[in-house]
Amino acid sequence: MRVLVTAASRHGSTWGIATAIAGTLQDSGIDVDLLVPDDVMTLEDYDGVVIGSAVYAGHWQAEARRLVDRYHDVLSGMPVWLFSSGPLSDVPETDDIPAEQPIDDHWAPDDLPMLFEQTLAREHRVFPGRLDTADVGIPTRVLMRLLHQQMGDHRPWTAIRAWANEIAAELTHARVPVEA
Ligand SMILES: Cc1cc2nc3c(=O)[nH]c(=O)nc-3n(C[C@H](O)[C@H](O)[C@H](O)COP(=O)(O)O)c2cc1C
């Protein structure tokens, strides 16, 4: 069983989430390729794909949307899971989100209807993100404050790993042979 985990990230935070998902899948005995979207050359040989992106101004990063555009024919015929990372406000502190209560899709990016249409994904999750002071200039920091966005790392590792475990369970259960 081989799974592709791919994510578009501008400042590394979403890549960190993708890395955690890949690690959890590997711990479940699944072979995982972890690639940035532009490095994906084929989807052959994969039993499932997890695609994620940071959200900026309500949208997935172009690199992740390009991947979906390029491979939508194949993606719509295989198990696909999507995740977005971004919210920095009105989110509980890191690790406080119970795994069974992921944030509602009210935080979802504007691209989501199109992403679902193109991939027929099984599920989409939104995970809070991270914004370091060092990553942005003063104007962006002022803008973030005006928008009530909180600098810092809000990524909910427990919920992220729990979701990856759910994906692993779905993939591995799907392959259990039915006894006659
Ligand atoms: C200019 C700017 C715009 C942003 N717009 C959104 C947004 O529309 N929705 C959202 O959920 N997060 C938004 N964010 C938060 C980022 O998505 C968040 O910091 C994310 O974790 C960054 O991921 P990355 O490090 O992988 O690039 C924005 C951040 C910045 C700096």
**Main sheet makeup:** 6 strands, mixed
The CATH homologous superfamily is named Flavodoxin domain
Query: Can you tell me the number of structural domains?
Result: 1
Q: Count all strands and give the number.
A: 8
Q: Determine the mean pLDDT.
A: 89
- The helix content, as a percent range, equals 25-40%
Amount of beta strand: 15-25%
Radius of gyration: 16 Å
What is the string of SSEs from the N terminus onward?
EHEEEHEHEEHEH
Global outline = globular
CATH topology: Rossmann fold
SS-derived structural category: alpha/beta
Roughly how many Å apart are the termini? 23 Å
CATH architectural group: 3-Layer(aba) Sandwich
Stretches with pLDDT under 50, minimum 5 residues: none
Q: What is the C-level CATH assignment?
A: Alpha Beta
- State the helix count: 5
Topology:
Blueprint lengths: L1 E7 L4 H15 L3 E5 L12 E9 L2 E2 L1 H14 L4 E6 L26 H8 L3 E5 L2 E2 L6 H9 L5 E2 L3 H18 L6
Parallel strand pairs: 1-2, 1-3, 3-5, 5-6
Antiparallel strand pairs: 3-4, 7-8
Helix pairs in contact: 1-5
